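Reminder to self: tokens first, then the designed residues, so the page reads top to bottom the way the pipeline ran.
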């Protein structure tokens, strides 16, 4: 992934996709996208990513990096949830002492610490063996990744805490984009809009079959109560404080403002349709 990112930034690739964590490697303030429990659901997240926040992020990365233009944000695998090998997690207290696999991203490491667990960065190809041998007690992944990689051979419990929306950020080389004429730019723009819609729907459809496969393998799926969800959110507050200490409140405020606007817009649409 790092080599592909470098190829995009130096003009050897025209188009590439990163996760939220991948973007943070170029532009560290973008870690706000992975702040725990930032987005309440798909509808709000998709609304936010179709609005001014994405425009602001595009401009910030162009100013900071220069070589990459953000074209669209879709989804790469649903939502991150906590999955464990031998223990049902219903609230943050149940995470205490668990060794959870993370990637090397600071926000993910800070979240496991805040919940009382032991963050254990492990490369993706080594996760299956690490679960099998007890190097880790669980992981933080979307259900489609868990089933596709057969992690459910060992993971037997999932709590649907939904602590992070698994964003997929689509990039185009700024040089390649600017070499297009206006008509070609419009064609490319329209293509990314279609791609974005398709890439948002695919994880939702795949998740239905993946959850069924998890259950069929003897797995337990637990939906936290509103009180338990609130406890997760409260326990995660140190992660937000960590982010603010390192990057300030600009992106937190921008995201929360757009989330509130989208929630109001979606609620108004429902009220109008329900009359």
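Designed residues (275 positions):
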């Amino acid at each position: 992934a790092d080599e592909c990112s470098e190829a995009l930034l130096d003009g050897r690739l025209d188009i590439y996709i990163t996760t939220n964590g991948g973007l943070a490697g170029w532009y560290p303030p973008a870690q706000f996208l992975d702040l725990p429990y930032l987005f309440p659901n798909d509808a709000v997240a998709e609304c936010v990513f179709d609005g001014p926040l994405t425009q602001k992020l595009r401009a910030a990365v162009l100013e900071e990096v220069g070589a990459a233009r953000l074209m669209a944000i879709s989804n790469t695998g649903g939502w991150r949830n906590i999955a464990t090998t031998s223990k049902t997690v219903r609230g943050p207290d149940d995470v205490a002492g668990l060794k959870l696999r993370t990637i090397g991203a600071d926000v993910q490491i800070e979240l496991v610490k805040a919940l009382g667990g032991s963050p254990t960065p492990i490369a993706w190809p080594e996760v299956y063996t690490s679960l099998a041998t007890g190097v880790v007690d669980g992981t933080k992944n979307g259900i489609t990744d868990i089933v596709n990689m057969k992690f459910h051979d060992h993971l037997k419990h999932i709590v649907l805490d939904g602590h992070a929306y698994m964003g997929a950020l689509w990039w185009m080389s700024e040089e390649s984009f600017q070499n297009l004429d206006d008509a070609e730019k419009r064609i490319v723009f329209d293509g990314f809009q279609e791609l974005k819609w398709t890439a948002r729907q695919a994880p939702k459809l795949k998740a239905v079959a993946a959850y069924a496969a998890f259950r069929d393998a003897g797995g337990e799926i637990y939906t936290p109560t509103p009180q338990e969800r609130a406890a997760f959110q409260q326990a995660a507050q140190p992660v937000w404080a960590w982010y603010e200490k390192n990057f300030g409140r600009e992106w937190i405020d921008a995201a929360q403002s757009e989330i509130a606007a989208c929630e109001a817009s979606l609620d108004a649409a429902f009220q109008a349709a329900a009359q």
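Residues 57 and 70 are 8 Å apart (CA to CA).
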